[in-house]
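Record 1 of the preview.
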Amino acid sequence: MMDNKSKYTQFCQSARLPLHMQPWWLDAVCTGGSWDVSLAFDAEGRICGALPYYLTRAFGLQFIKMPPLTDYIGPWIQPAEDRIAKQERLYAYEKQVITDLVEGLPAVHFFNQQYYSTFTNWLPFYWKGYRQTTYYTYIIDDLTNLDAIYDGFKNTVRTDIKKAENQVDIVTGDNPGPIYQLHPQRDFAVSREVFDRLDQALAQRNQRRILLAKDYHTGEDIAGLYVTWDHHTAYFMLAAIKETRRQSAALHLLYWEAIRQMAGLVKQIDLCGSILPGPEHFSRSLGARQTPHFRVYKTGNKLLKIISLLLKKGYD
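->
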């Protein structure tokens, strides 16, 4: 009899699940622990819900947390609008699927996951003692009219783009090394090994693009943008700029070029924005739609609760 992980891996061969929930993605990034999945099944025994999780251990404690380089992880629920007409029955179906997923999670000392913005009902988590914090990302929903997207940029962004066009060349690369080296290591707690493992998995499936801004005169790498995508959405996963060139307009030109390239591949772009003031301002200036998504967490250890209170992390 197959276990959940094997069933899920087989299921994903035909189902169109989001990028960060793909088994091959999880295989690449979950190197410091292991990954598994909670599944929900319909009356015929078919998978109708999935919630992968990354399980790690430290100091004798078990944790479920976000894998490295992974912005979101689920849950996925089989759409039922074509089978269920009444809104009340849709809510009931959704509630049951999410409840089954929550009950299928292992008991751990600390749980922390971030979900796609399409997941909007965390009540079954709340009823089981979990808590939630709302985060925000920025999404460009419609890529069919590039002129409208450009017009939606903040005026200073359009000025920066024009300025950067005379200062840097935008090239497409096949080596993630420059982006890794440009990114301040104090803000990037991911090993080069994990980054390269994921890059290789994405490159094999032609689901990533590396864009570099090079100084027009010296050829020096000034900034880089790492873009990934699935069947529906492109994710601006990682942006970096050289510390000494932070006043450069290169990043705005990089983002604009990436938007133009992704317009022919996907329906929307998730800028994977941060709630920190600097990155939030940058994402907002591109005219993208502010979009909430959930971070759901739970602490099952008294010592961790005390530590979280002292650190003001809100993990209680």
